[in-house]
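Thread: Newbie trying to understand structure tokens

Hi all, I'm a second-year student working on a class project, and my supervisor (Dr. K.) asked me to get a predicted structure for one chain before our next meeting. I've only ever worked with sequences, so writing a 3D structure as a token string is new to me. If someone could post the tokens and maybe explain what I'm looking at, I'd be very grateful. Here's the chain:
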Amino acid sequence: MSTFLRLAVLAVLAAGSLLLPGAALPARAGDPAPDPVQTLDLTVLSYNVHGVPFIDADMDRRMARIGLALAELAPDVVALQEVWRPSDADALATAGREAGLPHVVRLDAERAGSGLLVLSRFPVAASEFRPFPDNGDLWRALVGHVDRLAAKGAAIVRLETPLGPVALVDTHCVAAFRRERGAPDEMVTHRLSQVRVLVAALESAGAGGVPAILCGDLNALPGSAELKLLRARTGLRDTMGESGRRIDYVLVRDAPAAAFEVLSAGLALTRRVALEPGLTPIPLSDHPAVLARLRLRRQPAPQANGDSTPPR
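---
Reply by user tm_fold:
Sure, no problem. This is what the structure looks like when written as tokens:
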């Protein structure tokens, strides 16, 4: 077969392949857009890392080990509390980037001492910090209730995911204070005022029908007045249910366009760890982490009523 004939046969075969079943045709103006992503699986970690300065000689090594845990757990979004020292924030942000979480929200530059740090696999479209107006009375700080010295509040972050925007709120409410063992917690009223700030933060974060996640150390039990108020005013639901004695949470709220399915949720990082060979294993924090594996599913658009009969 001559060279000319071979080229002619190849040209015919190439042209015919465009008509074979399953062959991709070039897009034309006016063609419908491809179907959008319908589901998104994401893993969310909330963790109070117990980064209180001056009380722990193992702080640097604990933070390094927590950084390694980020790679082991493979979360998509991490909401941390009590990251008080800038060096710890830097170390955890670096560990997050190495674990595939390149987007960092650290709001201490705007208001020193929030202790909140967010790491994300998804880009961050916007962020802001809303301080709590009430962290308790100053005199309590003089008797050991150091929460009064912290600038606690809510970090509000808007994430851009393949399924669309998702709102995240990371927070840390004021801790309990009792004058003596068994006495009533004097900080309930203060936390209720902080819950009202969280309600407003969720309304702002979820504006436009955006699904929302609230993570953090709420310093209140699942059946407490604080959690009841928060759920009633926001529609949030607890990924771990409403039982048990714990104060750390991952809460979710659906939106008209997308709803959360909880695939699994539970406590993580509860084991004691030897920070170096030969050392006695210790807890990585005085809190467990909460790890929630979620599936965000796009909701079908509401169908218009097909009855064209005008109302009477």
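A couple of things are worth pointing out once you decode it. Residues 7-25, 139-145, 308-312 have pLDDT under 50 and may be disordered. Helices lie at 3-17, 59-73, 86-98, 138-141, 188-205, 225-234. Feel free to ask follow-ups in this thread.
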